[in-house]
Amino acid sequence: MYATIRNMYKRDAGQFLLGVLFVFSLVISFPRVYATDEVQYYAWMRSIWIDQDVNFENEYRTFAALNPKSGINESLLQPNRIRTKTNLYGNIAPIGSAILWAPWFVGADVLLRGAHMVGVGLHIPADGYSWPYQRAVCYSSALYAFVGLLMVRRLTQRWVPPWHSTVSTLAFWLATPLVFYMTVQMPFAHANAFFVSALFVRAWLWQRDKPDRWEPWAAIGATLAGLFLVREQLILFAIIPAMSEILQFWKFPSSSLARASQSIKYYLLCGATMLVCVSPQLMAYMAVNGQPSPASEVSSKLNWCSPHAIDTLIDFDPSPEPVCGVVDEPVRIPAWSRGALVWSPILLFGIIGMLLFARAYPLYGIPMLAAFILQVWLNGAFGTTWHLSGAFGFRRYIECTPFFIVGGAYLLQMFKQRYTTVFALCVVGLLVLWNMGLILNGTVFNGLTNVRRGLQWPELWEWQISLPQRLWELGGAFFDRCRVLKNGC
After folding, report:
1. Are 377 and 400 in contact (CB under 8 A)?
2. Is the same domain home to 249 and 191?
3. Do 306 and 443 lie in a common domain?
4. Using CB atoms within 10 A of its CB, is residue 368 exposed (0-12), middle (13-18) or buried (19+)?
5. Fewer CB near the last or first residue (10 Å), C or N of the chain?
6. Which of 381, 414, 447 is the last residue of a domain?
7. Can you tell me the distance from the alpha carbon of 52 to that of 288, in angstroms, rounded to the nearest whole number?
8. Are 394 and 340 a contacting pair, CB within 8 Å?
9. Which pLDDT does position 254 carry in this prediction?
10. Residue 212, phi then psi, degrees to nearest 5
């Protein structure tokens, strides 16, 4: 056993380290379905497999009874959530996560029913709600995200040495909300969406390596559809292959016309593959909403002028931009409380690294930068919910993590001197500790800090600095999961 572990370490020490940390994260994770968004993602899987319908009322009422403080009654079970065309309760969650969970959920169901048939495990109901089902989807989400981390780390080594890619992968995993949504609120879509975004980047790079093969274009279409199925706004990642082709034509104008004519069949293949693969979501819209499009809860949030684009990054003045014509908003957000760079300062290094990477490798860096900018614009367009009040961190940028990892690794590579490298590693370590402090303050000590409502200054400095002492005083009670699970264990 020891020899096997030693050989794994020798083959790829960075991957081994990531694996050890991932296993540890699973040990301390909280695999359960709790809040309104989580329940909506989960309801697709349970309702279709167990009930063979898309009537989510029983799922909503069951989880509301299990978690009475989750807000499900106040949000999902209100009369205005019933669709007039189908008389069904709505579900604004896409079905992509349920598709990814399907093998694990179905496997848990088959094993549990088999155990019942032989008289084992009769105390665990095979109803789609019990802990084997919930843990199956939670652990699979974490596993998908971990595979995404390994994939992006390997892809980043196209441009930087393995050591830099490993440090950057660790940094943008442990110092951002990604680790939170892999361990605490696991059934959210972000872990799955990060995995699909890594797959998409892999397909795009495959196409750049094999421009005259049809398989990469089909993979791009399928992964673009996967992005839409998991989180609709990620369809904007389509700018990456489009921008990549434009830059290629710009670089070689003499052959651009001939290349365009040769590539038309590939573009059509990509589009056709994407349309076929998004059809399950269109059918889901039709079944629940009575129309092949999202419900008004989604579309009514959008202000295409994007009055809060900058605020999603750094909210020094969270009032809407005057040019967008928004006079007043129902929720006023305190300054410096919700911006992504305020919660996760390490993202600043990822953005700087992306800019430098785009300058050095424009055919790769500019498309990545364009995709990130489009996400900034769209996140700021959610006029009433841009701030994600109640969420841990600005989670809507998690899917851009592959770009941050590439940028961070390239930036780290620029530190040639030993003392600057040590300084960079110290900064990364401090930012990881900062994020871990926020997670502990937002979970174990949630009653004291209410950190999920937004960062509160200057109290936050005291919470973070005094955290080691409070953990010491907590002692063995730190492992009491009821402190984190609001409605008991």
Report:
1. no
2. yes
3. no
4. buried
5. N
6. 414
7. 13
8. yes
9. 59
10. -105, 15
Residues 178 and 42 in one domain: yes
Q: Can you list the residues of the chain whose pLDDT is less than 50?
A: 448
Question: What is the residue-wise DSSP string for 224-275?
Answer: HHHHHHH-GGGGGGGHHHHHHHHHHHHH-GGGHHHHHHHHHHHHHHHHHHHH
Least Cα distance to 364 among 410, 313, 413, 416 occurs for 410
Same domain, 462 and 379: no
Does 7 map to a domain?
Answer: no
Which tokens in the block code for residue 236? 């904007």
Nearest by Cα to 141 from 91, 178, 94, 166: 178
- Which value, in Å, is the radius of gyration of the alpha carbons in the chain? 23
Q: Which long-range contacts (CB under 8 A, 24 or more apart) does 412-417 make?
A: 412/160, 412/164, 412/167, 412/168, 412/353, 413/160, 413/161, 413/164, 414/356
What confidence score (pLDDT) does residue 170 get? 97
Q: Which residues lie across from 74 on neighbouring strands?
A: none
**Residue 75 CB-density burial (10 A; 0-12 exposed, 13-18 middle, 19+ buried):** middle
The last residue of one of the domains, among 379, 414, 449, is 414
Tell me the sheet residues that pair with 89.
Answer: 82
pLDDT of residue 486: 65
Distance from C-alpha of 13 to C-alpha of 389, rounded to nearest angstrom: 39
Same domain, 330 and 450: no
Q: How many domains does the chain have?
A: 2
Residue type for 296, please? S
Q: What distance in Å separates the CA atoms of residue 104 and residue 135, rounded to the nearest whole number?
A: 9
What is the spatial distance between Cα 327 and Cα 395, in angstroms, rounded to a whole number? 27
pLDDT, position 23: 96
| Pairwise CA distance, residues 406 & 410, whole Å | 6
